[in-house]
UniProtKB/TrEMBL annotation:
PANTHER family, per database record: CHROMATE REDUCTASE (PTHR30543), NAD(P)H-DEPENDENT FMN REDUCTASE LOT6 (PTHR30543:SF21)
Catalytic activity, EC: 1.6.5.2
Stated role: The enzyme apparently serves as a quinone reductase in connection with conjugation reactions of hydroquinones involved in detoxification pathways.
Pfam families recorded: FMN_red
UniProt enzyme class: oxidoreductase
Cofactor(s) the protein requires to work: FMN
The name this protein goes by in its record: NAD(P)H dehydrogenase (quinone)
Subunit (UniProt): Homotetramer.
InterPro entries: Flavoprotein-like_sf, FMN_Rdtase-like_dom, NAD(P)H-dep_reductase
Length: 193
């Protein structure tokens, strides 16, 4: 009898800041998946080293090595987990750059399940989430609809500590619900449910 299927998740953070609350959400997601979600492996995929997208860097159908390595990690994943800050009602430039590189032919986002969480000001990064979902239509990414997690990081009680680690138990529980929904949707999408 075969073991329980493993869903491989590529996790991307749209913030470069060391103490980023969105990076804290990703760290917590990885911890939660290891501790309490059987059949889910989350790999943090760094995007800070990617060159700014420039098709002049594509030579004879090949991408720069950092881009190709990144694309392969996305390709091998069953689903994608984004943690995105909001910049001017959208995602950050570093995340948009990564999205654009992975969408170059062949589009390695296509057909994957996805989830997005965010931490920010009054709306908790919600506008960035909705903009990312809109881009996902063209990319053929299939976002879970519910639950949503938009952390209002500056409203009491404290959600994160000084290092950007998630400390709020309710937010952790809500994050776990997002991960479980992504896991279940991923299984259905890849035909392993």
């Amino acid at each position: 009898m075969a073991g329980k299927p493993i869903i491989k998740v590529a996790a991307l953070c749209g913030s470069l800041r060391k103490g980023s609350y969105n990076r804290g959400l990703l760290r917590s997601a990885i911890e939660i998946s290891k501790e309490s979600i059987d059949g889910m492996q989350i790999e943090y995929v760094e995007v800070s080293h990617l060159p700014m997208i420039n098709t002049d860097l594509e030579v004879d159908g090949k991408y720069p090595s950092a881009v190709e390595e990144f694309r392969q990690k996305i390709l091998r994943a069953d689903s994608v987990f984004f943690a995105s800050p909001e910049y001017n009602y959208s995602v950050s430039p570093v995340l948009k750059n990564a999205i654009d590189w992975a969408s170059r032919p062949p589009n390695v986002w296509a057909g994957k399940a996805a989830a997005v969480v965010s931490a920010g000001g009054d709306l908790g990064g919600g506008r960035a989430q909705y903009h990312l979902r809109q881009s996902g239509v063209y990319l053929d990414l299939h976002f879970i609809n519910k639950p949503e997690l938009m952390v209002r990081a500056f409203q009491p009680p404290a959600k994160f500590d000084q290092e950007g680690n998630l400390i709020d138990p309710q937010v952790k529980e809500n994050l776990k619900k997002v991960l479980l929904a992504l896991h279940d949707f991923s299984l259905r999408l890849v035909g392993r449910a």
